[in-house]
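[agent] plan:
  1. take the single chain provided in the ticket
  2. run structure prediction with default settings
  3. attach structure tokens to the ticket
  4. add a short note for the reviewer (M.T.)
[agent] executing step 1
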Amino acid sequence: TATTRRRGRPPGFSPFR
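[agent] step 2 finished; step 3 output follows
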């Protein structure tokens, strides 16, 4: 999921994907 794109970048997740 690319939901982190607007939330920022949590630990273990990429801001690009």
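[agent] step 4 note for reviewer: The radius of gyration is 6 Å.
[agent] ticket updated
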